[in-house]
Amino acid sequence: MSRSLADWLSYLEQLHPVSIDMGLERARLVQQRLGLGRPAPRVITVTGTNGKGSTCAFLASLLRASGLRVGVYSSPHLLRYNERVLLPDGEASDAALCEAFAAVEAARGETSLTYFEMGTLAAFWLFERAALDAVVLEVGLGGRLDAVNLVDADLAVVTSIGVDHVEWLGDSRSSVAVEKAGIFRAGKPVLCGDLDPPPVLLEQARQLGCPLLLRGRDFDLAYGEQGWHWRGVDAGGQPLELTNLPLLDLPMENAALALQAFARLGLPWQAPTLVVALQQAHLAGRLDRRTLCWQGRPLNLLLDVGHNPHAAQYLAQRLAQRPPRGRRLAVFGLLGDKDLAGVIEPLQGLVAHWAVAPLPTPRSRSAEELLAALQARGASADAWPSVAAAIEAQAIRATADDEILVFGSFYSVADALYWLEQHGQSGSKRQDNQG
To answer: Model's pTM, two decimal places?
Structure first.
């Protein structure tokens, strides 16, 4: 009897004794049994503490605009597992994913694989059969021991380096950088968007003979009265420049990084086409503004998956640049392994009232813990049994001039998208197993 996609995902969650099991040996063995080679002639692997998703979205849009057939692998998903595997015609279908999972299952034999490892190999299986020109691979966790690192990257991209996932990556920027640098390959170019990369990352690039392009030295962006400007270099090291680019909702620092990655690939540089491609890039849940009519009046929401101090600081900067006409109300949930103080402190002065809620996972912090942390800092806050209930409470408070910020986790944003769907917006219920 054939399995549905929901059946497969439920099965995958129970395959391995732990959800995260760092290492490439088991997945590499199954990769060899499947006969998988390179998923495309051009492979760009993107790692970083924050900014991976938007960098991948920008880069994929630039590549597509140049006429390439592009695949993108990312994680986690918000509403549908299909979001993780993008093919030239859109998200991989349920049928295609089921066929890929069946192929990986047949090849693994007695080898145990995690949910993520099964999904990564299934994506590679689909990419090889799609006659792609390029793939953009987003690292799930770290880099060195992540299943995405089974494939040698032609171009390695590091977005940012902060402290997160301490139990896996260590408690310093240097230890995190060691894991991120694990995606580097000898002689292959490396791009880094962090303005202060730890020396260990630079040393790893030097030892491997990787041409290294750094933001602030080889490429950068600047803001002007009419928009923003980008400078960088082409594949031969010659200067390139784009001026008066329109402002974007997604982080323009990551757009600058994607532009430099595109330029390093040596593809035709057609400035008008590239500008349009940047504007077309979209990523649900990242500085994602939504407006709907709720009980006969406008309701303004801003969704952001930011869940660690680095992401919270960036979110606070962007919020300060664009204050609402009225108040900013927050809906907030956080996983237990995240730095609670580090996430809420950058946003304290920007939020008039907080509605906190537990996330739909055993890994969640309790609403009582979140409430206590905020009240100890003098914040106005109350607790609710779910993200949906917290949104409803803030919606009742909100005027047409107010903005409701939903943030703190992929789970928070996924539940917000589901709430929007119930109120006439597009979307569907997410599958579980997210970060």
So the answer is: 0.87
Q: What is the pLDDT of residue 168?
A: 59
Mean pLDDT in residue range 227-234: 96
- Tell me the pLDDT band of 426, cut-offs 50, 70 and 90: very low
pLDDT, tens digit (0-9, with 9 covering 90-100), for 129-183: 999 999 999 998 878 889 999 999 999 999 998 876 666 566 688 889 999 999 9
Q: Residues of 292-311 as b/e, b for ≥16 C-beta within 10 angstroms? A: eebeeeebbbbbbbbbbbbb
**Dist CA 2 CA 148 (whole Å):** 28
Tell me the per-residue pLDDT of 304-357, one tens digit each, with 9 for 90 and over.
998 889 889 989 998 998 899 999 999 999 999 899 999 999 999 999 999 999
The three state secondary structure string of the chain is CCCCHHHHHHHHHCCCCCCCCCCCHHHHHHHHHHCCCCCCCEEEEEECCCCHHHHHHHHHHHHHHCCCCEEEECCCCCCCHHHHEEECCEECCHHHHHHHHHHHHHHHCCCCCCHHHHHHHHHHHHHHCCCCCEEEEECCCCCCCCHHHHCCCCEEEECCCCCCCHHHHCCCHHHHHHHHHHHCCCCCCEEECCCCCCHHHHHHHHHHCCCEEEECCCEEEEEECCEEEEEEECCCCCEEEEEEECCCCCCHHHHHHHHHHHHHCCCCCCHHHHHHHHHHCCCCCCCEEEEEEECCEEEEEEEECCCCHHHHHHHHHHHHHCCCCCCEEEEECCECCCCHHHHHHHHHHHCCEEEECCCCCCCECCHHHHHHHHHHCCCCEEECCCHHHHHHHHHHHCCCCCEEEEECCHHHHHHHHHHHHHCCCCCCCCCCCCC
Which residue from 213, 140, 136, 142 is spatially nearest to 181, judged by alpha carbons?
142
What span, in angstroms and rounded, lies between the C-alpha atoms of 129 and 135? 13
64 residue type, one letter: R
CA-to-CA dists, residue 63 to 92, 99, 120, 275, 380, angstroms: 19, 27, 22, 12, 46
Q: Which of 230, 237, 239 is nearest to 274 (CA)?
A: 230
